[in-house]
Design brief:
By secondary structure, this protein is mainly α. Among the domains are: about 110 residues, TATA-Binding Protein (2-Layer Sandwich), CATH 3.30.310; about 250 residues; about 80 residues, no CATH class. It is about 60% helix and about 5% strand. Strands 1-2-3-4 form a four-stranded antiparallel sheet, covered by helices on one side. The chain has a two-stranded antiparallel ribbon with strand order 5-6. The protein has a two-stranded antiparallel ribbon with strand order 7-8. It is globular, with a radius of gyration of 33 Å. The relative contact order is 0.05. This is SWIM-type domain-containing protein.
């Protein structure tokens, strides 16, 4: 297990994602000139003194991996940071943050235009020289630079020079080439292996079971396929070798549907076989004459169209089809590549909807039987079929894109993009290629146009997040691409707009951090004062409130359970954080009317201007019958209503609410409330025991 990478100096703000107020104070310290002279007391080890809030001064030491900001392939990273202040609640204090601001200004002057001039900013005079931290863009560019699917700097998605390297290992020593097994003999070998498998079973009926309870393995079947495939991979009789490889694919698919052994080894065999066939086709394209190459490719495409493979494992089916990309790089065989890929496009894209509908209807008819269980199984089968069809369509588009790229056919690629403007995969590939080339404005326009065409931005983002082109790097789908482009363009306004979208549409706790990210962006690079940020925050809170109303109107209140955290379609963690950080008491009161059981920070915020409302929320969570007349004005519970159930769990619930009450209003008020509850039930010793902490 590798250790996580150290944070980069250019984006050190990520160290304070969970403590935005600490970063805010760090910024104030830096801007007000509290950071003393920085000295490099050892190679890459920096020391300074920072004036505290009183007359104290604290020593801060920060070690970096290097100090060459021009080395873009090796960004400056923070190896360690330490401060002599007594603050221990979080790993990094405001003094460390202040020194990091100063270090970044000193070592990376182009990374920020913020000036320490007693808080006076002239953003208009500096906007042309702003260089925003490339937090998202850097991760995407690192991924693209590391991808093997590159050819002379051109970004590809399925073809890779690595395929050629593997292919050469098959024929590295031509003296070891064995005579190719004839296709007729191959068929006999596969039939014999099946016969031998079933011949070992008692009475040729059920698979034998070994001592561990597993069905008889299929080791001999696998060894037969591997032997035939290896013989083919080392052959220069390309046409007949590909016939044998087609038979291998068909045999494995047949085994998967006819034997009852553990199928995991067979699936692994199929995956490895397909990838090695894909590599072998590099040799076919490079060394076979055009006529032989065409026949060989036809055999592999026939293997890809095996019914069991296409419907059961569409990804491997399309990887075999992608063998045609090997032929796109040579003038003599490029025609075969176009023929295969354009046929797939006609089959899977132009007629895809009708074919899929017909197939789905057929599968639904075949799967239909009486009973809810059978209907549920039929629906699952239809869902799987739709997923398989989507995989085939997606990879057909990727293969076509790579074909035109490898062939330097800009007209074909543009025609593909223009004919499929609603394809999320193609548009992402287009945007990613533009980002790789540094054309951020064009990539931004591509993303924006696609979102404008979409009926639902959030669904479009979700689809983009799971497209597989940039796995794990597009958490917000198209908006993440736009975020990367805004960083590349150093566009503070655009980036702030994207962060606002994340905050307003937030329904996941991980996105709550964008409140502090937006604040730091506008303070550090937008030149906003604290007072100006306060107005921006209030406007943003109103947008969040309107979005909550839309959610209530259009989205059902549905909950799911992921781990131990409860999620609701009406909750907005970023809005909650904004309310708490900015102490928006009115907004907190309105927001809490839409959710159940508000967390303590929200209750404390409500209590700033609406203490009675905060008390009502807490006391209404008490079990019915708890409240007495003295506190009735804060609670909907009737003082003369149902008696409190005499259960320990009920008393524990009262104690829990009293602890919440104490966290908001202090121990004195809580003691009064606890005495009132106990006096109402003077003979309940267990109740007094549970509330002893507050009495």
């Amino acid at each position: 297990m590798s250790a996580p990478e150290k944070p980069m100096l250019a984006t050190f703000e990520t160290m304070f994602e969970n403590t935005p107020l600490i970063l805010e104070r760090a910024s104030d310290y830096w801007e007000s000139g509290r950071v003393g002279d920085i000295q490099e007391i050892a190679p890459h080890l920096f020391h300074t003194q920072i004036s505290g809030s009183s007359d104290d001064a604290y020593d801060v030491d920060i070690r970096l991996n290097h100090t060459d900001a021009k080395d873009t392939s090796n960004p400056i990273r923070i190896q360690s940071a330490a401060c002599t202040c007594p603050y221990e609640r979080t790993p990094y204090c405001k003094h460390i943050g202040a020194m990091l601001y100063e270090l970044r200004q000193r070592l990376m002057p182009s990374s920020t235009t913020q000036r320490r001039d007693n808080g006076n900013h002239d953003s208009s005079s500096e906007s042309s020289s702003i260089t925003l931290p490339h937090t998202v863009l850097h991760r995407i560019q690192e991924e693209l630079a590391a991808r093997p699917e590159q050819l002379d700097g051109t970004l590809l998605f399925l073809w890779s020079p690595h395929l050629q390297t593997v292919a050469r290992t098959f024929t590295s020593d031509t003296d070891d080439e064995q005579p190719l097994i004839s296709p007729v003999e191959v068929q006999h070998l596969f039939l014999d292996s099946i016969d031998q498998y079933y011949g070992r079973l008692p009475h040729h009926q059920e698979p034998a079971v070994n001592d561990s309870g597993n069905a008889a393995d299929c080791r001999e079947l696998i060894e037969t396929v591997q032997a035939v495939a290896m013989n083919a991979f080392q052959s220069t009789d390309y046409e007949h070798a590909c016939i044998n490889l087609r038979l291998c694919v068909h045999a494995v698919c047949t085994y998967l549907h006819t034997i009852e052994a553990d199928l995991a080894p067979l699936f692994a065999l199929l995956d490895g076989l397909v990838m090695r066939i894909r590599c072998y086709m590099e040799n076919v394209a490079a060394f076979a004459d055009p006529a032989t190459a065409g026949k060989a490719l036809t055999c592999i495409v026939e293997a890809a169209h095996d019914v069991d493979l296409r419907h059961g494992d569409p990804l491997n089916s399309m990887l075999l089809v992608s063998s045609a990309l090997s032929f796109a790089r040579y003038d003599g065989t490029r025609l075969w590549a176009y023929d295969v890929v354009e046929h797939e496009m006609s089959r899977n894209l132009e007629e895809g909807d009708e074919t899929s509908s017909a197939d789905s209807a057929s599968r639904q008819t075949d799967a239909h039987t009486d009973g809810d269980i059978a209907n549920a199984a039929a629906n699952d089968a239809l869902d799987d079929a739709e997923l398989h069809d989507e995989i085939i369509r997606t990879f057909t588009q990727i293969i076509a894109y790579d074909l035109y790229t490898l062939s330097h056919d800009d007209d074909g690629r543009n025609r593909l993009l223009n004919d499929n403007p609603d394809s999320s995969t193609l548009m992402i590939m287009r945007a990613v290629s533009l980002i790789q080339d540094g054309h951020f404005q064009a990539a931004l326009m591509t993303a924006q146009r696609f979102l404008d065409m979409s009926s639902n931005e959030q669904e479009a983002d979700l689809e983009a997040n799971h497209n597989g082109v940039l796995h794990g790097l597009l958490p917000h789908g198209w908006h993440t691409l736009m975020e990367a482009c805004a960083e590349g363009l150093n566009d503070v306004t655009m980036l702030a707009s994207i962060y606002r979208y994340y905050i307003v549409s937030c329904n996941d706790q991980s996105d709550a951090r964008y409140v502090s990210v937006l604040r730091n962006l506008l303070r550090m690079y937008g030149g906003l004062s604290l007072e100006e940020w306060g107005q921006v925050a209030r406007n943003l809170a109103r947008d969040c409130a309107r979005n909550i109303l839309d959610r209530i109107k259009y989205q059902p209140e549905m909950t799911t359970f992921g781990g131990t955290q409860r999620h609701s379609s009406w909750r907005n963690p970023a809005y909650e954080k904004l309310i708490i950080d900015e102490r928006l008491s009115d907004a907190a009161l309105t927001y809490c009317s839409t959710i159940t059981y508000p967390p303590l920070p929200l209750l404390r915020t409500i209590a700033i201007d609406h203490p009675d409302s905060a008390k009502t929320i807490i006391l209404n969570a008490m079990p019915r019958g708890t409240m007495g007349p003295a506190v009735f004005k804060y609670s909907a519970a009737s003082p003369s209503g149902d008696a409190l159930p005499a259960r320990r769990s009920t008393y524990q619930q009262i104690a829990k609410q009293l602890r919440r009450y104490s966290s908001v209003f202090g121990p004195e008020e809580t003691r009064t409330l606890a005495h009132d509850i106990v006096s109402r039930y003077p003979n309940r010793t267990a109740l007094r025991e549970e509330l002893a902490f507050a009495l």
